[in-house]
Amino acid sequence: MKVVIIDDEKAMHLIMRRMLAKVNEVEIVGTFQETSTAFSYVTNHEVDLICIDISMPRESGLDFAKRLRANGHLMRLIFVTSYTEYAPSAFDVNAYDYILKPIRSERLVRTLQRAIADGDAHPKLI
């Protein structure tokens, strides 16, 4: 499973890398601190899952997700954030999961194992 991490905090990149390394089937193919370069990457490369923060400079994680969906990209999205209040909006863009910071490794691993078990089935956009 090819995974991209999008978070404006470099420390989260390190934390996420450490946690994702616990799942053999996961390959981190990109890490980004801003959505514009991330969008360009996911548009031109195979990506199965994106871990993204809500609070990002210039474009929120939610707006990024809306732009992805508007352009027909169906990869799974896991929002990793400190904000509880955006969960309904995240699921409106077909979030695969919504995980609150500080993130627990067991929680993330369980979500990734579920995504792997679901195989290539991408969410259907309604």
Automatic annotation (TrEMBL):
Record keywords, A-Z: Phosphoprotein
Segment forming the signal sequence: none
SUPFAM superfamilies for the chain: CheY-like
Keyword Phosphoprotein among UniProt keywords: yes
Domain of life: Bacteria
A Pfam family assignment: Response_reg
All residue ranges annotated as the Response regulatory domain in the record: 2-116
PTM annotation (4-aspartylphosphate): residues: 53
UniProt keyword Phosphoprotein, yes or no: yes
PANTHER family reported in the protein's UniProt record: TRANSCRIPTIONAL REGULATORY PROTEIN DCUR-RELATED, TRANSCRIPTIONAL REGULATORY PROTEIN DPIA
Protein name as annotated: Response regulatory domain-containing protein
Taxonomic placement: Bacteria, Bacillati, Bacillota, Bacilli, Bacillales
